[in-house]
Amino acid sequence: MMDLIPCLPDEIARECLTRVPYTHFCTVSAVCKGWKEELESVQFHQRRKSGGLSRPIVVLTQAEPDRALGAVKCAAAHAYRLALLEPATGAWGKLPPVPGFSGGLPLFCQCAGVGRKLVVIGGWNPTTWEVSKAVFVFDFVSGGWRRGGDMPGASRSFFACASDSDRMVFVAGGHDEEKNALKSAMLYDVAKDEWTPLPDMDRQRDECKGIFHAGRFLVIGGYSTEMQGRFERSAEAFDVATWQWGQVEGDVLDIGSCPGTCVVGGEGKLYRCRAGHMAVSDGVTWRSVAELPADIRVSPNVVTWQGKLLVIGMAKCGGPYGAYVLESPHYTWRKVRVPEEYSGHVQAGCCLEI
C-alpha cells in the first residue's frame, strides 16, 4: 500500500488532509484513490470535528436577485438557487444547480443536512408547477449531485422535514394534489437510499414545521383539511427509540400562529419569531428575549447551530434581505454582511457541520 503522502507517516498525512478547507474537498479527493477514500471515510470527518476543524455551513434556498419580482406574494415566480453562508468567516457562495432544473432548484422544496451531504426533497417544477417527488443529494466531498429514490406515495407539498444530522431525513404531513391535508410520515435513509414508512400522526398537519431534537422528530402546528389555514397550536413527536408518536404536552404555539420560524436553539429550547421579537419557550409560555432588528422583521427565516441563531429577513415587502446572528447567553445581535448577490428572497434553510 502506498503512503498517503510520500516520505510522511500516514498519521501525519492524515493530520495534513484533515486541515484542508471543505471548499477544496472536491479537488483533493480527485488527486488519487487513497486521498478520495480518506476524505470519504467516517473517521476523517470525526477527526475534523474532534479537532475543532469542522465548520458550520448554512444553506439557504434563495431567489436569484436579478430575477426577483420584489413581493413576497410573487415568490413562486422567482428563480431559486442554493446559497451558502459560512458564519465563522462571513463568506458566501452557492452550489451548482440541481440536475434537470435550469432555474436552480424546485420551488418550495425542503432541504436537510445529513453529515457531509445536503438532501433536497420535493417542491414544484418552476416551469410546469407540477409537484415533484424527486430527491437530490449533494456530496461536499465529491462536489456533485446524485439522484435519490423518489418519495413514495402520493405527491405532497408543504410538508414537515428534518434530519437527525447523521443519516436520516424525516418527512410528515403537508397536502396532496387535491389539497387534502396529510397525517402520513416516512423517513429516508441517505446512505442506503431507502424510504421507510412511519406510523401516521394523530392529526392531519398541512404547512407544519419539522424539527429533530434528542432522538425525536417534532412536527409543530399545521392545520387539517377542514381548517384550511387556521393553524393548530399543538405538536406531536415521533420517538425513534420506541417507533411511536406522542403528543407534546400543552399548546406549543399561540392560536393561529404559523410555525415556520420554530427552531431548537441552545440548551434544547424552542425559539421562534413572534410579534417582532425572538421568543423562547419554557414549555408553558413564550418569553421575548430580544427585539428583532428593524431590517429583518418581515418574512424572517431562522437557522440554528451550536446554540446560535441566524435570522434572515427584510425591512419591508420587496426589500433586500439582511441577516443577524443572535448569540447566547446574553441574546445580543451581530450583523452579518450580505452582498447584493445574496440579498434575494429566502424560502428555507438548514445547517451542516463539515
From TrEMBL:
Superkingdom field: Eukaryota
Location of the F-box domain: 8-48
GO terms, biological process: negative regulation of cytokinin-activated signaling pathway; regulation of phenylpropanoid metabolic process
A Pfam family the protein falls into: F-box
Coiled-coil annotated residue ranges, if any: none
Name listed for the protein in its UniProt record: F-box domain-containing protein
Organism listed in the record: Nelumbo nucifera (Sacred lotus)
